[in-house]
Amino acid sequence: MARYIFVTGGVVSSLGKGLSSASLAYLLKSQGYKVRLRKMDPYLNVDPGTMSPFQHGEVFVTDDGAETDLDLGHYERFTNISSKQSDNITTGRIYSDVIKKERKGGYLGKTVQVIPHITNRIKEFIKKDITNEDFVICEIGGTVGDIESLPFVEAIRQFSNEHGKSKTLFIHLTFVPFLKSSDEIKTKPTQHSVKELRSIGIQPDIIICRSQQSIPLDQRKKISLFCNVPIDNVIETVDVRTIYEAPISFFNQKLDKQVLKFFKLKPKKRPNLNPWKKITKIVLNTKKSVNIAIIGKYVNLKDAYKSLDEALVHGGIANNVKVNLVRIESDNLKNNEIKTKLKNASGLLIPGGFGKRGTEGKISAIRFARENKIPFLGICFGMQMAIVEFARNKLKIKKAGSTELDRKCYPVIGLINEWDKDGKIIKGTDKDLGGTMRLGLYEAKLRNNSAINRIYKSSSIKERHRHRYEVNNKLKNQFENKGLIFSGMSPDNKLPEIIELQNHPWFIGVQFHPEFKSRPLAPHPLFSSFIKASKNHK
Ligand code: GLN
Question: CA-CA distance, 489 to 445, in Å (whole number)?
């Protein structure tokens, strides 16, 4: 049986449970163990797919098309293990499963209750789809003490009781503040948080203390004493200079060693931290920089484009250059402001998006990049807007648009059934917004001798999608005659996947989200190439 590591958080949220879990996973994996990471989210949404990035940051999409919490992005980036649908669950999903079963009479007349029915369903999730993994690291969202997280904490308590202490380990991540006025590090919030956890039946085995500065031995001893945890299992994590330092820092603090010791295991091989050391050095020391303008609706929210920001940094790592993200809010972006706003930009990126607000500004900016030969990368909505711009200004279809934004436009972008009259209708209606998108991994065939073919060094690729609307391929010849070629198509040749402009240094639009597959230790070729072109631009 796999060994289960449960990670809870206390005192405050945003302490970096995701990053800690991901770093631990990397360390265990690099010592020869098979690891899986899972996230349990206490909110009532069935999945984060319908949540605004304003509320919850980006929606991360997996190969198998699940719309998940952005922490799964951290997991993948640090471990290079592809997450699956079965790796993220929410309270909403748990309840919806239980209620569905109840309506079908699946509980044989019993009173359906949080304990045992909800907790049983959570325990099923924890074990689901696990085969030969050595470790399953399960992170519980939120903070201990929240009403919402209670059933999850109760479920992991039961799980440990049923499977035994030798198979389950509890890690609790807390905050250890430094009080300037008294020049002291305070352990009391940690003590309270552990007390809270113990009151619901869980004794942590390891406490990770997040702190702005190193925690002196005396304070660590205090935490050990009051929280009933061996001193070696009180691990500190001091703020790192870049997230890529996290695996190195946890290794130095012996987190992985203590975990293996707990399970009475030895490393199968020496962990390799050199790749992290190498990229940390690049990120911290590179002087040369390039400005990439990103125009989007949620640019002011830190985590709204998490994977994208990361992928651009990875592109910088590949080119030994620092990437400055110049975020431009698309709402109220006036046409006459574009020239000044893009003055110092070496590249323009229009990311994915939904809805009409701010689109005209994006379209004008794309025109500016096209006409002034500024490297341009359009992702999903960004590619769709590049098609609209080109149709209006080069094909002279003045009413060209996307039916997502304007039902009366000429649909250069639309639902398939809006333009694919003779072919097979793949999608029906846009009435139900939950779960009606093209999601997850789809193949694209790349045209020989195209820019994209050279970038990927392959004629077939698979990338992750998350969209409802498609480029109308009936206009393919018209676009291509004017120099915008459809260099990547779905295998049945129906759906344009990639567009590129000829006679331009670098102008590419992709219907998918390459950012989900970029890794710091393996930057995505599209981002590496985009940053290279931007570096050469200025
Ligand atoms: N709103 C567009 C669609 O649904 C694009 C989505 C996206 O950028 N992810 O097709």
Answer: 5
- The residue whose CA is least distant from atom 5 of ligand 1 is 381
Q: How far is the CA of 380 from the centre of ligand 1 (A)?
A: 6
- Alpha-carbon span 480 to 516, nearest angstrom: 29
Indicate whether residue 354 lines ligand 1 (CB < 6 A).
Answer: yes
Compute, in angstroms, the gap from residue 469 CA to the centroid of ligand 1.
6
- Which tokens is 365 given? 């900016």
Q: Is 468 in the pocket of ligand 1 (CB under 6 A)?
A: yes
**How far is ligand 1, taken at its centre, from the CA of residue 354, in Å?**
5
184, with CB counted inside 10 A (0-12, 13-18, 19+), is exposed
- CA distance between the termini of the chain: 56
Q: Which atom of ligand 1 is nearest to the CA of 413?
A: 10
Give residue 286 CA to ligand 1 midpoint distance, Å.
35
pLDDT tens track for 424-468: 434 444 454 545 689 999 999 999 999 999 999 999 999 999 999
Position 421 scores a pLDDT of: 57
Annotated catalytic residue, options 67, 380, 465, 470:
380
Q: What is the pLDDT of residues 180-217, one digit of tens each?
A: 888 889 999 999 999 999 999 999 999 999 999 999 99
The answer to whether 259 and 285 are in contact (CB under 8 A) is no
Ligand 1, atom nearest to 381 Cα:
8
Q: List, in order, residues 6 or more apart from 219 with CB less than 8 Å away.
A: 176, 185, 187
Residues of the chain with pLDDT under 50: 423-430, 432, 434
**Ligand 1 mutation pick, 466, 497, 510, max ligand atoms within 8 A of CB:** 466
Q: What is the model's pTM? A: 0.91
User: All domains of the chain, ordered by start, with CATH?
Assistant: 3-277 (3.40.50.300), 286-417+434-536 (3.40.50.880)
Report CA-CA distances (Å) from 486 to 23, 411, 465. 40, 17, 17
C-alpha 186/C-alpha 218 separation (Å) is 11
Nearest to 505, CA basis, from 471, 458, 461, 537: 537
CA distance 31 to 25: 10
In angstroms, rounded to a whole number, what is the distance separating the alpha carbons of residues 193 and 465? 40
Our answer to whether residue 515 is catalytic in this structure is yes
pLDDT tens across 88-114, in order?
999 999 999 999 999 999 999 899 999
Residue count of the chain: 538
